[in-house]
Write a structure and sequence with these properties.
Number of domains: 2
Structural class: alpha+beta
CATH architecture of the largest domain: Sandwich
Number of helices: 7
CATH superfamily of the largest domain: Thaumatin
Largest sheet: 8 strands, antiparallel
CATH class of the largest domain: Mainly Beta
Shape: globular
Strand content: 25-35%
Radius of gyration: 21 Å
Helix content: 10-25%
Number of strands: 24
């Protein structure tokens, strides 16, 4: 599998895969960085309908208390999956008297639930104990668009609902999917993809959910991100909500800028090796192309955006992704050759992304999407198959 930071796509481009979806926070509902794969003439064509199996092994909620939503984009339209495996475009008329839609797919009364997934990109949401409140609105062009849950926003109507999601793109090139903690972590789940290979990711260690909550609570700067026993909000959203310090990473950022004023930082991508130094307050690289970055803010680091935005140009984008990962994993000072690939070196600095650290520590395979470019060096909970035969999402024990 090619690391995302070596691919000519970016997380920001893939956000468009939801075709105008909106959420109640200043962020678009996001697809995974990996989510769209390039299709080449030699790429096997995936079948037009993929068998999907939903399994409730939560141990805390019966099937009747679990609600599933498959929503996203197909052929440029916002759509949702019906229980019969067909897609329906979202419509303003879908909003009920309370102003919200009911797109819930119930689980079978007992045992496994089977669905059929047509080509589309989007998210599989699960809510436990109560239904989610999706709302269809008109986007800037007047087209119907779905307002997604924003569990990190206290005023969102879904804030009190226990819910989470997995992300995917399924098209003729195959199935590309991941579990995600980029926005928040709440419900433990795993995904399994069968086809050319049999792959599983997202499974937590025994007691992993409780351990993640405890680990984040133990770090004073991160403790306010824990919302009771409901969810942990990612620190970027916590910053926007006033729950996380806006200057948390400032000393670490200053140290990186000071260090690489006097020596070279080498970043290797598929395009080649870039050599950088800080000149005139900008970290400037030469090599396959000249790229440079202004000093990022804490928010830029957490969202891998702003000064660390990654355009789909094959040069600036891959370097930005690797820098974003290095800041979050606190590896930029310890190694002047990036990306680092030994997880034993990650999150060892005092000023590190303790949220992402807790997500990885909780995962059975050590992989998680704790920040936007957690797929650098392939540490994200992402799997893909160009000839898929089945997809399985399992709610695992709390």
């Amino acid at each position: 599998m090619t690391p995302r930071h070596h691919r000519p796509v970016s997380r920001r481009t893939l956000l468009a895969g939801l075709g105008g979806a909106v959420v109640a926070a200043p962020a678009v509902a996001a697809l995974a960085p990996h989510a769209l794969a390039e299709t080449t003439p030699s790429t096997p064509k995936a079948a037009a309908a993929l068998p999907v199996t939903l399994v409730n092994n939560s141990g805390s909620f019966g099937n009747g208390s679990v609600h599933v939503y498959v929503v996203g984009n197909a052929d440029g339209r916002q759509v949702r999956l019906r229980p019969d495996g067909t897609l329906a475009p979202v419509a303003l008329s879908d909003n009920g008297p309370d102003g919200f839609t009911d797109y819930a797919i119930p689980l079978a009364g007992s045992g496994e639930t089977r669905l059929s997934l047509p080509y589309m990109s989007g998210r599989i949401y699960v809510s436990l104990g109560a239904k989610l409140k999706f709302k269809v609105v008109a986007d800037g062009a007047g087209n119907p668009a779905l307002q997604y849950p924003a569990g990190w926003v206290s005023s969102d109507p879904n804030y009190g609902v226990l819910h989470d999601c997995a992300e995917f793109t399924y098209n003729s090139a195959g199935m590309f999917c991941n579990t995600t903690m980029v926005d928040m972590f709440s419900v433990p789940m795993s995904i399994r993809l069968t086809g050319a290979k049999d792959q599983t990711t997202g499974t937590l260690r025994d007691g992993g959910r409780a351990a993640a909550f405890a680990a984040v609570r133990q770090v004073p700067e991160f403790a306010r991100l824990v919302v009771d026993d409901t969810r942990i909000i990612a620190p970027g959203h916590g910053l926007d909500a006033g729950l996380f310090a806006k200057d948390y990473f400032a000393p670490a950022i200053d140290e990186v800028w000071s260090t690489y004023t006097g020596r070279d930082l080498k970043v290797t991508t598929n395009a080649g090796t870039f050599t950088g130094r800080v000149r005139g307050e900008r970290l400037t690289f030469t090599g396959p192309a000249e790229v440079s970055f202004g000093k990022p803010s804490t928010r830029d680091v957490l969202f891998c955006d702003g000064a660390l935005a990654a355009p789909n140009d094959g040069t600036t984008g891959p370097v930005a992704a690797i820098l974003g990962a290095g800041f979050n994993r606190s590896t930029l000072i310890g190694s002047a050759a990036q990306p680092t690939t030994d997880p034993a070196s990650f999150y060892r600095g005092e000023l590190t992304n303790h949220y992402a650290k807790a997500m990885h520590a909780a995962a059975e395979d050590g992989k998680a999407y704790g920040f936007a470019f957690d797929d650098v060096a392939d540490f994200a909970s992402y799997i893909q198959d160009t000839a898929p035969t089945g997809f399985r999402l399992t709610l695992t024990p709390f």
